[in-house]
Amino acid sequence: MIKRVSFIAMVIIIILVFFKISDQMPHHNGNSSGEYYIANALDEVGAKNIVTGIYLDYRYFDTIFEASILLVTVSGILFLSKFEQF
Asked: Are 17 and 29 in contact (CB under 8 A)?
């Protein structure tokens, strides 16, 4: 019974914190980043294809970090799979 009450209280607190944080976040109207990319991609990147320009210039560091996280994850899984106790 105590675990159930604790769980319900925790869920209520998490929901209240979520709504409190979401009220304080700025609200954007429209797609401002998409409009910025369309207006400035050709001048800033110089690529004829906007999708390639966004991927290779604007999102370059994000792509590198995603690839490094994937590499570390796969390496960890391979390392742990060599042991029979896991």
From this structure: no
pLDDT tens-digit profile, the chain (86 residues): 888 999 999 999 999 999 888 877 776 666 677 788 888 888 888 878 888 887 777 777 777 888 999 999 999 999 988 876 65
* CB 37, CB 52: distance < 8 Å: no
37 close to 54: Cβ distance less than 8 angstroms: yes
Distance of CA 5 to the CA centre of its chain: 33
Is the separation of the CB atoms in 50 and 41 below 8 Å?
yes
Instruction: Please name which of 33, 35, 39, 32 lies closest in space to residue 59, comparing C-alpha atoms.
Output: 33
Residue 5 has φ and ψ, to the nearest 5°, of -65, -40
Return the exposure string of 58-84: e unless at least 16 CB atoms fall within 10 Å of the residue's CB, then b. Answer: beeeeeeeeeeeeeeeeeeeeeeeeee
